[in-house]
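--- STAGE predict ---
source: upstream dedup step, 1 unique chain passed
mode: sequence only
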Amino acid sequence: MRYLDGAAVRAAISTSDAVAALRSGLAAEPPPQPVRGSTAWTGGELLVMPAEAGDVAGVKLATVGRGPVRVQGVYVLFDAATLTPLVVADAVSLTLLRTAALSALATDLLAPESASRLAVVGTGPQAREHVLAMRAVRAISSVTIIGRTPGRAEALADELGAVAAADLPEADIVCVCTTATTRSCGRPT
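--- STAGE serialize ---
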């Protein structure tokens, strides 16, 4: 059995490969899936997400806590016939990759080929992954990062060769990658 930490997940699976796998998987007739569950714990919540397809089965165990690291988890992949564990992987990295790849697939299917100006609302890990994913499916000419905290928006923009802005610019593709419940940047609501 192998263990893949976050860096190993990113090294093992490219965004383009993830988009292709999702395209193929979503086109196929999915088998019935087990019910997902959640359990309240003292420190937060445990989410249990099982699934099976073809010759593999897996379960993501994720916690949403109140500590300094809010979301943590592991994904265990099993051989479906023998239930032998094959891989244990960092669930947060897999989720970041899968979520952004699904957005990229939707963009690839729905946005015109000429779409090249990207705006991303948010400054966290999903924002970063979405910029990478959009660059995998479109020739992105400009990226604007919009965030509540100007310093975080500027830091992410610098890292990704983008610009930071306080308000939504004219864009062909907009990715909203934030858990914020209030709007505190740009024009008042």
